[in-house]
Amino acid sequence: MSLVIGIGKDSKSMEYKLAFEPEVFYWVMGPEIDHLSSVTGKYIDLYDGVTFQTIELVHLKRLIKDVKNRILTCSPLSSPLQS
């Protein structure tokens, strides 16, 4: 089972998207999920869906962007030590 976080009418039309397969890797987003929750009062978890109002989407876009950037900068492929 995977966890998909995105903005769009359905999974095929999502403009901003994060997918974790298996879903257990979603813990990587812990700091961003906590921040999103503190701003919107809504929490993303594995057991229930959550819907954001249009005005809140800026915060969800930021979460997706921040997680992607953090994962890319922590990737072993981007390590300057690798030859």
Keywords for this entry:
83 residues; alpha+beta; two-stranded antiparallel sheet; 2 helices; 2 strands; 35% helix; disordered C terminus
Explain what you see.
There is one protein chain. This protein is of the alpha+beta class and 83 residues long. Helix content is 35%, strand content 12%. The chain is built from two helices and two strands. Strands 1-2 form a two-stranded antiparallel ribbon. Helix 1 runs antiparallel to helix 2. It is globular, with a radius of gyration of 14 Å. The protein starts with a strand and ends in a 9-residue tail after the last helix.
Largest sheet: 2 strands, antiparallel
How much helix, percentage-wise, in residues?
A: 25-40%
Q: Give the end-to-end Cα distance, rounded to a whole number of Å.
A: 35 Å
Mean pLDDT: 77
Q: Number of DSSP helices?
A: 2
SS-derived structural category: alpha+beta
User: If strands are numbered along the chain, what order do they take across the biggest sheet?
Assistant: 1-2
The shape is globular
Strand content of the residues, in percent? Answer: 5-15%
Gyration radius over CA: 14 Å
Low-pLDDT segments, ≥5 res = 78-83
- What is the H/E string? EEHH
Number of strands: 2
